[in-house]
């Protein structure tokens, strides 16, 4: 025979199918499987967002003032892409019209290098907060936006304490992007972690309110990776 065939031996009579037919059947089966996985992931994403909303409302409490004024959502911001992505996620997935957004920036302690140096540093920090506030007002007009800037070396404890003081119901942070395998091996060998990983993990484990670390999955796959006390890098397609 000039064409290649694969013999499927089962109950008689024996059936012979072209190999390309088996490949096509396999691809169709694979497509059906991937469609099922995608549908399941969409369902899990919706369930996850509903769980966030429910827990956030529980943290708010049932007081008349809380129901009237809505939730207070704190987003930790800086000049990194991760922080900007976290703010975009919060604006599109958690903030409602009656909520209040608190933009918190933790700056490094001012060095004793003269008034001019300290003044320029503070100016950049305030400009960052102003820019982030404009983003909130442009994407969610009508939502109240507050800004706060603190100084300190230990970002984790500062953020947790401020979130507690302001009685926020949800804390959102940017999560560092996944590094290369080589970089991860070096970090594992030296047993060290970046400052970003340390303070994010501290906030997740020690904050009194629900805390979420967010980062984009990738341009190709889309969605976000979400980390909480109960979930580690949960892939959220929405």
Automatic annotation (TrEMBL):
InterPro entries: Rossmann-like_a/b/a_fold, UspA. SUPFAM superfamilies: Adenine nucleotide alpha hydrolases-like (SSF52402). Residues 30-64 are annotated as: Disordered. Residues 72-215 form the UspA domain. CDD domains: USP-like. This is UspA domain-containing protein. It comes from Malus domestica.
């Amino acid at each position: 025979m000039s064409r290649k065939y694969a013999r499927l031996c089962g109950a008689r009579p024996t059936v012979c199918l072209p190999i390309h037919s088996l490949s096509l059947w396999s691809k169709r089966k694979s497509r059906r499987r991937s469609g099922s996985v995608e549908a399941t992931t969409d369902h899990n994403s919706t369930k996850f967002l509903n769980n966030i909303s429910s827990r956030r409302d529980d943290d708010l409490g049932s007081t008349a003032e809380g129901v009237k004024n809505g939730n207070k959502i704190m987003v930790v911001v800086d000049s990194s892409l991760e922080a900007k992505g976290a703010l975009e996620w919060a604006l599109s997935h958690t903030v409602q019209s009656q909520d209040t957004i608190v933009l918190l920036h933790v700056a490094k302690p001012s060095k004793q290098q003269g008034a001019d140096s300290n003044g320029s540093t503070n100016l950049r920090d305030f400009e960052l907060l102003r820019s982030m506030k404009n983003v909130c007002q442009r994407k969610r007009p009508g939502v109240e936006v507050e800004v706060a800037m603190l100084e300190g070396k230990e970002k984790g404890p500062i953020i947790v304490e401020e979130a507690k003081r302001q009685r926020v119901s949800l804390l959102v942070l940017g999560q560092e992007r996944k590094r290369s395998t080589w970089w991860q091996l070096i970090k594992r060998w030296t047993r060290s972690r970046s400052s970003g990983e340390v303070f994010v993990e501290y906030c997740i484990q020690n904050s009194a309110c629900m805390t979420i670390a967010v980062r984009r999955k990738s341009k190709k796959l889309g969605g976000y990776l979400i980390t909480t006390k109960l979930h580690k890098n949960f892939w959220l397609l929405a």
